[in-house]
Amino acid sequence: MDLTYTPAQQALRAEARAWLEANVPATPLASFDTAEGFAQHRAWEAKLNEGRWGMVTWPTALGGRGCDLIEWLIFEEEYYRAGAPLRVNQNGIFLLGPTLMEYGSDEQKARFLPKMATGEDIWAQGWSEPGAGSDLAAIRAKATRDGDHYVLNGQKTWSTRAVWADWAFCIFRTDPNSSRHHGLTFILVPLNSPGITVRPIPQLDGLPGFAEIFFDDVRVPVANALGGEGMGWHVAMSTAGFERGLLLRSPARFQETARRLVELYQANRAEADRDPCVGDAVMRAWMDAEAYTQVTYQTASRLARGEKIGPESSTNKIFWSELDQRMHATALSILGARAELQPHAPHAGEVGRWLDGFLFAQAGPIYAGTNEIQRNIIAERMLGMPRA
Question: What DSSP character marks residue 214?
Fold first, then answer.
Protein backbone atom coordinates (compact mmCIF):
# COMPACT_ATOMS: atom_id res chain seq x y z
CA MET A 1 0.00 0.00 0.00
CA ASP A 2 1.45 3.37 -1.09
CA LEU A 3 0.60 6.06 1.46
CA THR A 4 1.67 8.89 -0.86
CA TYR A 5 -1.23 10.94 -2.22
CA THR A 6 -1.29 11.52 -5.96
CA PRO A 7 -1.60 15.06 -7.43
CA ALA A 8 -5.24 14.29 -8.33
CA GLN A 9 -5.98 13.20 -4.76
CA GLN A 10 -4.33 16.32 -3.37
CA ALA A 11 -6.38 18.47 -5.75
CA LEU A 12 -9.59 16.77 -4.59
CA ARG A 13 -8.65 17.45 -0.98
CA ALA A 14 -8.01 21.13 -1.72
CA GLU A 15 -11.30 21.49 -3.62
CA ALA A 16 -13.28 19.78 -0.86
CA ARG A 17 -11.63 21.85 1.85
CA ALA A 18 -12.37 25.12 0.05
CA TRP A 19 -16.02 24.23 -0.61
CA LEU A 20 -16.64 23.04 2.94
CA GLU A 21 -15.01 26.10 4.48
CA ALA A 22 -17.30 28.28 2.37
CA ASN A 23 -20.52 26.32 2.93
CA VAL A 24 -20.56 24.51 6.30
CA PRO A 25 -23.16 26.28 8.51
CA ALA A 26 -21.55 28.66 10.98
CA THR A 27 -24.08 27.64 13.64
CA PRO A 28 -24.51 23.92 14.41
CA LEU A 29 -27.79 22.47 13.19
CA ALA A 30 -30.38 21.23 15.65
CA SER A 31 -30.44 17.49 16.35
CA PHE A 32 -31.89 15.52 13.46
CA ASP A 33 -33.88 13.64 16.08
CA THR A 34 -36.16 16.70 16.25
CA ALA A 35 -38.56 17.89 13.55
CA GLU A 36 -36.70 21.19 13.23
CA GLY A 37 -33.29 19.57 13.02
CA PHE A 38 -34.48 16.91 10.57
CA ALA A 39 -35.63 19.66 8.18
CA GLN A 40 -32.33 21.51 8.60
CA HIS A 41 -30.32 18.38 7.83
CA ARG A 42 -32.50 17.61 4.82
CA ALA A 43 -31.67 21.09 3.49
CA TRP A 44 -27.97 20.41 4.13
CA GLU A 45 -28.18 17.23 2.04
CA ALA A 46 -29.58 19.34 -0.81
CA LYS A 47 -26.74 21.84 -0.40
CA LEU A 48 -24.15 19.08 -0.58
CA ASN A 49 -25.80 17.77 -3.73
CA GLU A 50 -25.54 21.19 -5.36
CA GLY A 51 -21.77 21.01 -4.98
CA ARG A 52 -21.75 17.32 -6.00
CA TRP A 53 -20.37 16.42 -2.58
CA GLY A 54 -23.37 14.46 -1.35
CA MET A 55 -22.19 11.08 -2.60
CA VAL A 56 -18.74 11.43 -4.12
CA THR A 57 -18.40 7.70 -4.90
CA TRP A 58 -21.52 7.66 -7.06
CA PRO A 59 -21.15 7.82 -10.86
CA THR A 60 -21.14 11.30 -12.38
CA ALA A 61 -24.32 10.44 -14.34
CA LEU A 62 -26.11 10.07 -10.99
CA GLY A 63 -24.83 13.32 -9.51
CA GLY A 64 -21.66 11.99 -7.93
CA ARG A 65 -18.01 12.43 -8.76
CA GLY A 66 -17.06 8.86 -9.61
CA CYS A 67 -14.53 8.83 -6.78
CA ASP A 68 -12.85 5.64 -5.64
CA LEU A 69 -12.74 4.62 -1.99
CA ILE A 70 -9.38 6.31 -1.34
CA GLU A 71 -10.82 9.59 -2.61
CA TRP A 72 -13.90 9.05 -0.45
CA LEU A 73 -11.69 8.63 2.61
CA ILE A 74 -9.91 11.88 1.72
CA PHE A 75 -13.24 13.70 1.40
CA GLU A 76 -14.41 12.30 4.74
CA GLU A 77 -11.25 13.61 6.41
CA GLU A 78 -12.01 17.09 5.13
CA TYR A 79 -15.70 16.75 6.00
CA TYR A 80 -15.00 16.00 9.66
CA ARG A 81 -12.15 18.49 9.79
CA ALA A 82 -14.62 21.21 8.75
CA GLY A 83 -17.10 20.23 11.48
CA ALA A 84 -19.81 19.59 8.88
CA PRO A 85 -23.21 18.25 10.02
CA LEU A 86 -23.79 14.53 10.46
CA ARG A 87 -25.61 12.92 7.55
CA VAL A 88 -29.31 12.42 8.22
CA ASN A 89 -29.61 10.26 5.08
CA GLN A 90 -26.67 7.98 5.81
CA ASN A 91 -28.93 4.90 5.60
CA GLY A 92 -29.75 5.91 2.05
CA ILE A 93 -26.54 7.24 0.58
CA PHE A 94 -24.08 4.92 2.33
CA LEU A 95 -26.08 1.69 2.63
CA LEU A 96 -29.01 1.53 0.20
CA GLY A 97 -27.34 3.61 -2.51
CA PRO A 98 -24.45 1.18 -3.15
CA THR A 99 -26.86 -1.75 -2.86
CA LEU A 100 -29.15 -0.21 -5.49
CA MET A 101 -26.21 0.29 -7.81
CA GLU A 102 -25.30 -3.38 -7.46
CA TYR A 103 -28.75 -4.99 -7.55
CA GLY A 104 -31.21 -2.38 -8.80
CA SER A 105 -32.75 -2.25 -12.24
CA ASP A 106 -32.15 0.79 -14.43
CA GLU A 107 -35.69 1.94 -13.63
CA GLN A 108 -35.09 1.59 -9.88
CA LYS A 109 -31.82 3.51 -10.05
CA ALA A 110 -33.42 6.34 -12.01
CA ARG A 111 -36.40 6.42 -9.69
CA PHE A 112 -34.70 6.33 -6.28
CA LEU A 113 -31.12 7.55 -6.50
CA PRO A 114 -31.66 11.19 -7.62
CA LYS A 115 -34.16 11.93 -4.82
CA MET A 116 -31.89 10.18 -2.35
CA ALA A 117 -29.03 12.42 -3.45
CA THR A 118 -30.95 15.66 -2.95
CA GLY A 119 -32.41 14.71 0.43
CA GLU A 120 -35.92 14.79 -1.01
CA ASP A 121 -36.24 11.15 0.07
CA ILE A 122 -34.76 10.23 3.45
CA TRP A 123 -34.46 6.51 4.15
CA ALA A 124 -34.88 4.34 7.23
CA GLN A 125 -33.75 0.75 7.66
CA GLY A 126 -36.51 -1.76 8.42
CA TRP A 127 -34.79 -5.02 9.27
CA SER A 128 -34.95 -5.76 13.00
CA GLU A 129 -38.08 -7.22 14.55
CA PRO A 130 -38.98 -7.99 18.18
CA GLY A 131 -37.83 -11.58 17.65
CA ALA A 132 -35.25 -10.94 14.93
CA GLY A 133 -32.57 -8.46 15.87
CA SER A 134 -29.04 -9.59 15.15
CA ASP A 135 -30.52 -12.91 13.97
CA LEU A 136 -32.13 -11.53 10.82
CA ALA A 137 -32.84 -15.03 9.54
CA ALA A 138 -35.64 -15.21 12.14
CA ILE A 139 -37.71 -12.54 10.33
CA ARG A 140 -41.47 -13.16 10.47
CA ALA A 141 -42.96 -10.06 8.79
CA LYS A 142 -44.75 -11.30 5.68
CA ALA A 143 -45.18 -10.08 2.13
CA THR A 144 -47.96 -11.95 0.32
CA ARG A 145 -48.12 -11.71 -3.47
CA ASP A 146 -51.40 -10.31 -4.83
CA GLY A 147 -51.08 -9.72 -8.56
CA ASP A 148 -48.54 -6.97 -9.15
CA HIS A 149 -48.47 -5.98 -5.48
CA TYR A 150 -47.19 -7.37 -2.20
CA VAL A 151 -49.44 -7.14 0.87
CA LEU A 152 -47.23 -6.47 3.89
CA ASN A 153 -48.04 -7.47 7.47
CA GLY A 154 -45.85 -7.48 10.55
CA GLN A 155 -43.64 -5.24 12.62
CA LYS A 156 -40.18 -3.71 12.46
CA THR A 157 -38.39 -2.10 15.37
CA TRP A 158 -35.31 0.02 16.12
CA SER A 159 -35.71 1.68 12.71
CA THR A 160 -33.30 4.61 12.74
CA ARG A 161 -34.65 7.91 11.33
CA ALA A 162 -38.06 6.31 10.71
CA VAL A 163 -39.97 8.97 12.67
CA TRP A 164 -39.60 11.54 9.87
CA ALA A 165 -38.17 9.44 7.03
CA ASP A 166 -39.96 9.09 3.69
CA TRP A 167 -39.03 5.51 2.80
CA ALA A 168 -37.74 2.33 4.43
CA PHE A 169 -35.79 -0.55 2.93
CA CYS A 170 -37.11 -3.70 4.56
CA ILE A 171 -36.85 -7.47 4.50
CA PHE A 172 -40.02 -9.58 4.40
CA ARG A 173 -40.74 -13.29 4.17
CA THR A 174 -42.37 -13.89 0.80
CA ASP A 175 -42.37 -17.70 0.96
CA PRO A 176 -44.64 -18.77 3.85
CA ASN A 177 -43.13 -22.28 3.79
CA SER A 178 -39.55 -21.08 4.08
CA SER A 179 -37.36 -20.85 7.14
CA ARG A 180 -34.25 -19.02 8.25
CA HIS A 181 -32.49 -17.11 5.45
CA HIS A 182 -34.51 -18.68 2.63
CA GLY A 183 -37.64 -17.14 1.15
CA LEU A 184 -36.86 -13.52 2.06
CA THR A 185 -37.28 -10.48 -0.20
CA PHE A 186 -35.76 -6.99 0.05
CA ILE A 187 -38.58 -4.46 -0.51
CA LEU A 188 -38.56 -0.65 -0.71
CA VAL A 189 -41.57 0.80 1.13
CA PRO A 190 -42.96 4.37 1.18
CA LEU A 191 -43.71 5.20 4.81
CA ASN A 192 -46.80 7.24 3.93
CA SER A 193 -48.57 4.12 2.62
CA PRO A 194 -52.03 3.36 4.03
CA GLY A 195 -51.80 0.76 6.76
CA ILE A 196 -48.42 1.89 8.12
CA THR A 197 -48.14 3.11 11.71
CA VAL A 198 -44.86 4.63 12.91
CA ARG A 199 -44.42 4.74 16.69
CA PRO A 200 -41.38 6.70 17.99
CA ILE A 201 -38.96 5.09 20.46
CA PRO A 202 -37.11 7.52 22.76
CA GLN A 203 -33.33 7.24 23.03
CA LEU A 204 -31.37 7.65 26.27
CA ASP A 205 -31.52 11.42 25.71
CA GLY A 206 -35.30 11.33 25.34
CA LEU A 207 -35.33 12.18 21.62
CA PRO A 208 -37.03 9.84 19.12
CA GLY A 209 -34.04 8.52 17.19
CA PHE A 210 -35.75 5.20 16.48
CA ALA A 211 -39.23 3.95 15.74
CA GLU A 212 -41.37 0.87 15.49
CA ILE A 213 -43.11 0.39 12.15
CA PHE A 214 -46.36 -1.61 11.99
CA PHE A 215 -47.65 -2.97 8.66
CA ASP A 216 -51.35 -3.81 8.38
CA ASP A 217 -52.27 -4.98 4.87
CA VAL A 218 -49.93 -2.45 3.27
CA ARG A 219 -49.88 -2.71 -0.52
CA VAL A 220 -46.55 -2.12 -2.28
CA PRO A 221 -45.80 -2.74 -5.97
CA VAL A 222 -43.79 -5.85 -6.78
CA ALA A 223 -41.55 -3.49 -8.78
CA ASN A 224 -40.25 -2.24 -5.41
CA ALA A 225 -38.50 -5.55 -4.72
CA LEU A 226 -34.73 -5.19 -5.01
CA GLY A 227 -32.71 -8.06 -6.46
CA GLY A 228 -35.71 -10.28 -7.17
CA GLU A 229 -38.11 -12.30 -5.05
CA GLY A 230 -36.43 -14.67 -2.63
CA MET A 231 -33.06 -12.92 -2.93
CA GLY A 232 -33.51 -10.77 0.18
CA TRP A 233 -30.86 -12.46 2.29
CA HIS A 234 -28.24 -12.18 -0.44
CA VAL A 235 -29.01 -8.48 -1.03
CA ALA A 236 -29.15 -7.72 2.69
CA MET A 237 -25.74 -9.30 3.32
CA SER A 238 -24.26 -6.97 0.72
CA THR A 239 -25.84 -4.03 2.52
CA ALA A 240 -24.55 -5.36 5.86
CA GLY A 241 -21.05 -5.48 4.37
CA PHE A 242 -21.26 -1.77 3.60
CA GLU A 243 -22.66 -1.15 7.10
CA ARG A 244 -20.07 -3.12 9.05
CA GLY A 245 -17.19 -2.45 6.70
CA LEU A 246 -16.18 0.93 5.31
CA LEU A 247 -19.06 3.18 4.45
CA LEU A 248 -21.17 3.68 7.57
CA ARG A 249 -18.34 4.75 9.87
CA SER A 250 -15.39 6.35 8.12
CA PRO A 251 -12.18 6.57 10.18
CA ALA A 252 -12.26 10.37 9.96
CA ARG A 253 -15.15 10.34 12.44
CA PHE A 254 -12.95 8.70 15.08
CA GLN A 255 -9.84 10.69 14.19
CA GLU A 256 -11.82 13.87 14.86
CA THR A 257 -13.08 12.52 18.19
CA ALA A 258 -9.52 11.55 19.15
CA ARG A 259 -8.28 15.03 18.23
CA ARG A 260 -10.95 16.66 20.39
CA LEU A 261 -10.11 14.26 23.22
CA VAL A 262 -6.45 15.29 23.14
CA GLU A 263 -7.48 18.95 23.27
CA LEU A 264 -9.79 18.24 26.20
CA TYR A 265 -7.01 16.43 28.06
CA GLN A 266 -4.52 19.24 27.45
CA ALA A 267 -7.01 21.87 28.67
CA ASN A 268 -7.70 19.91 31.86
CA ARG A 269 -4.36 18.20 32.39
CA ALA A 270 -3.83 19.30 35.99
CA GLU A 271 -7.01 17.55 37.11
CA ALA A 272 -6.80 14.67 34.62
CA ASP A 273 -3.28 13.63 35.62
CA ARG A 274 -4.42 12.91 39.16
CA ASP A 275 -5.34 9.55 37.64
CA PRO A 276 -2.29 8.31 35.66
CA CYS A 277 -4.54 6.00 33.66
CA VAL A 278 -6.27 8.92 31.94
CA GLY A 279 -3.21 10.06 29.99
CA ASP A 280 -2.60 6.47 28.86
CA ALA A 281 -6.24 6.18 27.73
CA VAL A 282 -5.97 9.38 25.69
CA MET A 283 -2.78 8.17 24.02
CA ARG A 284 -4.36 4.80 23.27
CA ALA A 285 -7.41 6.51 21.76
CA TRP A 286 -5.21 8.50 19.40
CA MET A 287 -3.19 5.45 18.36
CA ASP A 288 -6.29 3.28 17.87
CA ALA A 289 -7.98 5.93 15.71
CA GLU A 290 -4.86 6.14 13.54
CA ALA A 291 -4.56 2.35 13.38
CA TYR A 292 -8.17 2.05 12.24
CA THR A 293 -7.47 4.67 9.58
CA GLN A 294 -4.49 2.76 8.22
CA VAL A 295 -6.38 -0.54 8.16
CA THR A 296 -9.27 1.14 6.34
CA TYR A 297 -6.92 2.54 3.70
CA GLN A 298 -5.47 -0.95 3.33
CA THR A 299 -8.96 -2.41 2.86
CA ALA A 300 -9.83 0.28 0.30
CA SER A 301 -6.64 -0.58 -1.61
CA ARG A 302 -7.60 -4.26 -1.62
CA LEU A 303 -11.05 -3.44 -2.97
CA ALA A 304 -9.46 -1.31 -5.68
CA ARG A 305 -7.59 -4.45 -6.79
CA GLY A 306 -10.89 -6.28 -7.19
CA GLU A 307 -10.96 -8.11 -3.87
CA LYS A 308 -14.06 -8.36 -1.67
CA ILE A 309 -14.93 -7.47 1.92
CA GLY A 310 -15.48 -10.75 3.72
CA PRO A 311 -16.18 -11.68 7.33
CA GLU A 312 -13.34 -9.37 8.38
CA SER A 313 -15.92 -6.59 8.21
CA SER A 314 -17.01 -7.95 11.59
CA THR A 315 -13.61 -7.08 13.05
CA ASN A 316 -14.01 -3.53 11.76
CA LYS A 317 -17.40 -3.19 13.39
CA ILE A 318 -16.18 -4.42 16.78
CA PHE A 319 -13.12 -2.19 16.69
CA TRP A 320 -14.77 1.12 15.81
CA SER A 321 -17.79 0.62 18.06
CA GLU A 322 -15.69 -0.18 21.13
CA LEU A 323 -13.16 2.54 20.30
CA ASP A 324 -16.02 5.05 20.24
CA GLN A 325 -17.14 3.93 23.69
CA ARG A 326 -13.63 4.13 25.16
CA MET A 327 -12.95 7.61 23.81
CA HIS A 328 -16.16 9.08 25.16
CA ALA A 329 -15.79 7.33 28.52
CA THR A 330 -12.29 8.82 28.80
CA ALA A 331 -13.67 12.27 28.04
CA LEU A 332 -16.29 11.96 30.77
CA SER A 333 -13.63 10.87 33.27
CA ILE A 334 -11.64 14.04 32.43
CA LEU A 335 -14.70 16.25 32.84
CA GLY A 336 -15.79 14.73 36.13
CA ALA A 337 -19.10 16.08 37.45
CA ARG A 338 -19.30 18.56 34.56
CA ALA A 339 -19.84 15.62 32.21
CA GLU A 340 -23.46 15.43 33.39
CA LEU A 341 -24.36 18.76 31.77
CA GLN A 342 -26.84 18.48 28.91
CA PRO A 343 -25.94 20.38 25.70
CA HIS A 344 -28.67 22.97 26.34
CA ALA A 345 -27.59 23.65 29.96
CA PRO A 346 -26.25 27.14 30.75
CA HIS A 347 -22.46 27.28 30.40
CA ALA A 348 -22.36 23.72 29.03
CA GLY A 349 -20.18 24.79 26.11
CA GLU A 350 -18.60 21.77 24.43
CA VAL A 351 -19.24 19.56 27.46
CA GLY A 352 -22.68 18.52 26.23
CA ARG A 353 -21.27 17.14 22.99
CA TRP A 354 -19.27 14.61 24.97
CA LEU A 355 -22.32 13.44 26.91
CA ASP A 356 -24.34 13.15 23.71
CA GLY A 357 -21.52 11.19 22.09
CA PHE A 358 -21.17 8.91 25.10
CA LEU A 359 -24.88 8.07 25.10
CA PHE A 360 -24.89 7.38 21.37
CA ALA A 361 -21.72 5.27 21.62
CA GLN A 362 -23.53 2.81 23.87
CA ALA A 363 -25.58 1.76 20.85
CA GLY A 364 -22.50 1.05 18.73
CA PRO A 365 -21.95 -2.54 19.90
CA ILE A 366 -25.66 -3.26 19.26
CA TYR A 367 -26.63 -1.78 15.87
CA ALA A 368 -25.36 -3.27 12.60
CA GLY A 369 -25.41 -6.64 14.38
CA THR A 370 -24.39 -7.01 18.02
CA ASN A 371 -20.71 -7.43 18.75
CA GLU A 372 -21.48 -10.83 20.27
CA ILE A 373 -22.80 -11.95 16.89
CA GLN A 374 -19.77 -10.41 15.16
CA ARG A 375 -17.46 -12.44 17.42
CA ASN A 376 -19.36 -15.59 16.47
CA ILE A 377 -18.85 -14.73 12.80
CA ILE A 378 -15.13 -14.19 13.35
CA ALA A 379 -14.81 -17.46 15.28
CA GLU A 380 -16.68 -19.54 12.70
CA ARG A 381 -15.80 -17.94 9.36
CA MET A 382 -12.34 -16.53 9.97
CA LEU A 383 -10.89 -18.89 12.57
CA GLY A 384 -12.72 -22.05 11.52
CA MET A 385 -13.93 -22.82 15.02
CA PRO A 386 -16.96 -25.12 15.52
CA ARG A 387 -20.33 -23.67 16.34
CA ALA A 388 -21.19 -23.72 20.02
Answer: E
pLDDT of residue 164: 94
pLDDT of 388 above 70: no
Map out the domains of the chain as residue ranges. Answer: 7-88, 123-235, 249-382
The pLDDT tens digits for 204-232 are: 778 888 899 999 999 999 999 999 998 88
Residues in the chain: 388
Q: How far is CA 251 from CA 80, 283, 291, 338, 360, in A?
A: 10, 17, 9, 28, 17
Is 184 within 8 Å of 178 (Cβ atoms)? yes
Cα–Cα distance between 101 and 144 in angstroms, integer?
Answer: 26
183: enclosing H helix or E strand: none
DSSP code for 34: S
Asked whether the beta carbons of 352 and 342 are under 8 A apart, the reply is yes
Bridge partners, 186 (sequence order): 171, 226
Architecture of the domain defined by 249-382: Up-down Bundle (1.20)
Identify the CATH assignment for 123-235 out of 3.60.15.30, 2.40.110.10, 3.10.50.40, 3.50.50.60.
2.40.110.10
Give me the active site residues, please.
Answer: 243
Residues 230-267 have pLDDT tens digits of 888 889 887 766 544 566 678 999 999 999 999 999 99
CA of residue 299 relative to chain centroid, distance: 18
